[in-house]
C-alpha cells in the first residue's frame, strides 16, 4: 500500500509537470519575426514584379494601400502576442495551482497512510490488550474459583475446629478435674507422709546446730529421714526408697513405719542390728521372700546411733555413706554394698558398725544419692560424689541455715534447664559437748 501510494504520487507529479511545461511554454518571438520578414519580402517582391509591368491605376492603388496593410498586420501580431502572453500567464497560474493541489493531495495521501498505520497499530495494541485482558479475566476467574474452594474448605475447617475445640475443651475439663483429684490425692499423701516425718521443733531442742534438706522430685517421693531420741540415745537415719512420687512415698511410709517399730517398740539402738531387722521386715511385708511375688522393691539406708553417755557415734550403712568434716579435712565412710528389702537381699547379712568419738569441731553429714546423681553443667554430666564432698567441705565453715541455702543454690545452678533426676535429702549437724557433761576426748574411730 505504501509503495502504491508513492508511485501514484510520483506519476501524478510527472504528468502535472509535463502538462504545465507544455501549456506554460511562451510563444516563440523569433519565429513570429521571421514570418513578418518573409511576409514583407514577399510583398516587396510582389511590388517589384508589378513595377515591371505597365502601370495601371489599380496597381498604383495597390501600392498605395501596402503600408496600410502592413500596419494592420503589425497590429494583428500585437494582438496575437498579447493574447499569447495572457494565455501564458493563465497557464502558469494554472500550473502553480495544479502543483499546489498535487502537493496537497500527496500530503493528504501521506496523512491517510500514517493515519491508517496508526489505526492498524492501535488495532494490534487493542488486540494485544484484549488478549491480555482475557487472560487476566481467566486468571481472575480461576482465582475466584480457587477462592471459592478455599472458602468452602475454611468453612469446613472452622466447623471441624469448632468441634475439635469443643472436644478439647471437654477433654481439658476432664483432665483438669482428674488433675485436681490427683493433686488433692498427692497433697493428702503429702499430709500423711508429713505425719511420719520428725517434729522439727522438738528436733531442734536436742540438735540445735543442724539443717535438714528434703527436696522430693514430685512433691512427695521415696526419700525420708527418721530421728528419735530416747534416754541417752539419738537415732538419725536417712532412707532412699525405690520410686518417686506416690509409689516412692508409699515405700517411704512403709519403710519408716518398720524402722519406727524396730527402734521405738523393740528398743533396738545398734545401727547394724536395725538394718538387719529392717531388711527382714520389709521382705516379709512385701512378700519378697516368696517365689510368687512379682514386685522387687527396697531401699538404701544410713543409720547413726549417738550415745550421749559414752560420747560415741555409731554408723552403719546400706550403700549410703557417712561424711565428716573436721579441721579442714573431710572423711567419708562408705556403707556396705548391700541393699534392704529386695529379693536378692540377704536376710542373714550382718552390716558393719563404725564407731567415732565425738568432738565439738566435727560436722556430720548424711545424704541420699539424689544430689550426686543429678545431671547438669556445661557437659550435662553427673554432679558426682567428689564434687559433692568438696561442696560440703567448702560450706562446713558457715552456720547450718546458710549451709542449707548454699546447697540449694549450688543444686539449682548446676541443674539448669535439666529435669530433676531423683529426690534429694541432705542432713548436717554438730553435737554440742554440753550434751555429754564429760571432758573432751580426741577424735577416734573404731570399726567392727
Folded structure, characterized:
With 448 residues, the protein is an alpha+beta fold. It has two domains: 2-129; 199-447, 4-Layer Sandwich (Phosphatase 2c, domain 1), CATH 3.60.40. The chain contains eight helices and 13 strands. The strands form three sheets. Strands 2-3-4-5-8-13 form a six-stranded antiparallel beta sheet. Strand 6 (322-326) and strand 7 (329-333) form a beta hairpin. The longest helix has 139 residues, at 57-195.
> Overall mean pLDDT score?
83
The first-to-last residue Cα distance is 130 Å
Shape-level CATH architecture of the largest domain: 4-Layer Sandwich
Number of strands: 13
Write the H/E string, N to C. HHHHEEEHHEEEEEEEEHHEE
How many helices?
8
Spans of 5+ residues with little confidence (pLDDT < 50)?
22-36, 53-64, 437-443
Describe, in short, the structure shown:
This protein has a 6-stranded antiparallel beta sheet with strand order 2-3-4-5-8-13. A 5-stranded antiparallel beta sheet has the order 1-12-9-6-7, with helices on one face. The protein has 2 domains: 128 residues; 249 residues, Phosphatase 2c, domain 1 (4-Layer Sandwich). The protein is built from 8 helices and 13 strands.
